[in-house]
Design a protein that fits this description.
two-stranded antiparallel sheet, mainly alpha
């Protein structure tokens, strides 16, 4: 008992130290943002996608529902956040073709509330489409949710939505985050709520459904209700993530939320490890950073300053990125984390056990 208490105190102290270190690094970057703008941009994008990847992992990795509608729910959250946070005096410059809807023209909502509102609207859509869609399984569910995302994208860009979404012209002048620490705190809160949910009784029900629906139903779990709850909560955080994404890039249109965006998020989840929030966070940082850091492969390269390497041309970085992914998948078939979560005990044991083995071998 005393050992457990000591370990808890040690873990709390280590967590506080880690938070202080991260806060120190982020504060340094923020103070010197003119010198580290590119690095800050990569971190911000990674943090946004960490929330969205965790929301997808909640429904795929922990509940076993193969949903591919994340880009659609992101679009809902992004547009709701953008519409209500664009400064009123700038809206005529945004809706310069047909003007903005009269009911929306003078409504302004602070961005924290707008993010939550975007998540709630996304959750409402998830609740409505979840009634018929969640009766499907496996590939059929994936196709249905993917179709929903594409239909929604078409509706957003349609002429009948011009006075609300500005149609195919999109929205600009979206206010951004004032600093990187602000975005980090919001991302951390969203991910922490999802972690607490998975570790609650609801999370145990989700996992039971993932493992065996028949056995879960025999234990008294309402399968459809739990599936819908997981789907709605996942969509809520996808909507919040979409709002964060809109604030990050400052301008959006229907093309921002294409099918490829869903595939990128799925890649982050699979690469990090299905059924692991730690893996989703790691996957989002790795995928985002890799795509940016490999950009030099898209530029012409002169060997010895004279011979031009023909392979270095626009698009070649994605070839290198794909090769690296194949290598990772070959060596880490369950993802880099493999369904495990971050734990101070595991990290400490990883370094202590090898030392104990060496001492035992030396004593023998």
């Amino acid at each position: 008992m005393q050992l457990k208490n000591k370990n808890k105190i040690r873990n709390i102290i280590l967590s506080i130290i880690l938070i202080l270190i991260v806060n120190g690094i982020l504060s340094f970057l923020q103070v010197n943002k003119s010198d580290y703008y590119y690095i800050i941009s990569i971190i911000q994008r990674s943090l946004v996608f960490a929330v969205i990847a965790c929301s997808m992992n909640l429904v795929i990795g922990f509940t076993g529902l193969f949903s591919l509608g994340q880009a659609g729910f992101m679009a809902i959250g992004a547009y709701v956040t953008a519409i209500f946070t664009i400064p009123i005096e700038r809206r005529p410059n945004v809706y310069y073709i047909n003007g903005i809807n009269d009911y929306l023209a003078n409504i302004y909502i602070p961005w924290p509330i707008a993010l939550i509102l975007g998540g709630l609207v996304a959750a409402l859509f998830a609740f409505l489409i979840g009634m018929p869609v969640l009766k499907l399984k496996s590939d059929y569910l994936a196709i249905a949710t993917l179709g929903f995302a594409e239909i929604l994208r078409a509706v957003i860009a349609s002429p009948m939505m011009d006075r609300i979404t500005n149609g195919s012209f999109g929205l600009k002048n979206i206010p951004g985050f004032s600093n990187i620490i602000e975005l980090t705190i919001i991302s951390a809160i969203c991910i922490l709520i999802m972690i607490l949910l998975v570790n609650s009784s609801y999370g145990r029900d989700f996992k039971a459904i993932r493992e065996d629906e028949i056995a879960a139903e025999a234990m008294g779990i309402n399968i459809f209700k739990m599936k819908q709850l997981s789907f709605v909560i996942s969509s809520f955080f996808a909507g919040v993530g979409g709002g964060m994404f809109a604030m990050f890039i400052r301008s959006i249109d229907s093309k921002t939320f294409q099918v490829s965006l869903t595939y990128d998020i799925l890649l982050m989840v699979v690469l990090g490890g299905i059924g692991s929030f730690t893996g989703s966070i790691l996957g989002s940082f790795l995928v985002t950073a890799s795509k940016e850091l490999l950009r030099f492969f898209d530029e012409p390269f002169l060997l010895f300053g004279k011979i031009e390497v023909s392979l270095f041309r626009p698009g070649f970085r994605m070839v290198i990125f794909s090769i690296l992914l194949m290598v990772v998948v070959l060596f880490f078939r369950k993802g880099i984390i493999g369904g495990k979560e971050f734990s101070w005990d595991k990290i400490i044991n990883f370094f202590i056990k090898p030392n104990h083995k060496k001492k035992d071998e030396e004593s023998i």
